[in-house]
Write a structure and sequence with these properties.
Layout: E1 2-6, H1 11-22, E2 27-31, H2 39-44, E3 52-55, E4 60-63, H3 65-75, H4 86-122, H5 128-151, H6 162-176, H7 186-196, H8 202-206
Parallel strand pairs: 1-2
Antiparallel strand pairs: 1-3, 3-4
Helix pairs in contact: 1-3, 1-6, 4-5, 4-6, 5-7
Pfam family, one: GST_N_2
Organism: Alteriqipengyuania lutimaris
Domain GST C-terminal: 85-218
């Protein structure tokens, strides 16, 4: 059985967890706080980052969320998430990279640092200026997702794909941290509300950090 070494508010961990549930791959969770990574974990992933998935009986250890997802795409036939024509698969990969570089860098990462790491690790107050800037940049990313969803059934095309999983994982963390204003973003809000109803996503909505609580709408399926 697979074990996913992960952190609950890591969007890359969430991406892998959603993908595995969509594909019906059973797994156990092992929480690992990134700032407490020990030598055993560094032996599994020299980068010292989650997620890492491990199958001890087969001696398999995989790191990097994109490499992990590609592995299960190639080894599990159910629910392909890098799907469609070669052109569509290229579009899926383009959007995954865009979301994990730009949306993460502009929005998710600053919110995690200010509202999670500073509180739990650094014991410092958040910088409200950085939070406001992240929330402002979130609107630009939501505008682009709105445009995509106005022209497509799913973010990358006619079928649900890894691009949808990636977007949902990033937005869910930002939303948990109170960094998303859904007003005036109807297409993305409706898509995300539908995504939250998927069985693969439900376990994420029920998880809570010890001292950081999400806004009231976070787990509501119609918001």
């Amino acid at each position: 059985m697979w074990t996913v070494h992960q952190f609950p508010l890591c969007p890359f961990s969430r991406k892998v967890r959603i993908l595995l549930r969509e594909k019906g791959v059973p797994f156990a969770l092992n929480r690992l706080d990134p700032w407490k990574a020990d030598d055993d974990f560094l032996d599994m992933n020299h980068a010292g980052r989650v997620p890492v998935v491990e199958e001890t009986e087969k001696g398999i250890v995989l790191s990097d969320s994109t490499a992990i997802c590609e592995y299960f795409e190639e080894t599990v036939d159910k629910a392909p998430m890098i799907n469609g024509s070669a052109l569509n698969r290229a579009e899926i990969r383009r959007l995954v990279a865009l979301l994990e570089e730009n949306l993460f860098g502009d929005v998710t990462m600053p919110l995690l640092h200010e509202r999670m790491k500073k509180r739990l690790v650094l014991r410092e107050p958040p910088d409200s200026r950085i939070i406001r800037e992240a929330m402002k940049l979130a609107h630009a990313h939501l505008d682009y997702l709105d445009w995509l969803l106005d022209h497509r059934a799913w973010i990358a095309g006619p079928q649900m794909s890894l691009a949808d999983i990636t977007a949902a994982a990033q937005l869910s963390v930002a939303d948990y941290l109170g960094g998303i204003d859904w007003k005036d973003h109807g297409p993305t809000r409706d898509w995300y509300a539908a995504f939250k109803s998927r069985p693969s996503f439900g376990p994420l909505l029920s998880e809570r950090m010890d001292v950081i609580q999400p806004p009231a709408h976070y787990a509501q399926l119609d918001d």
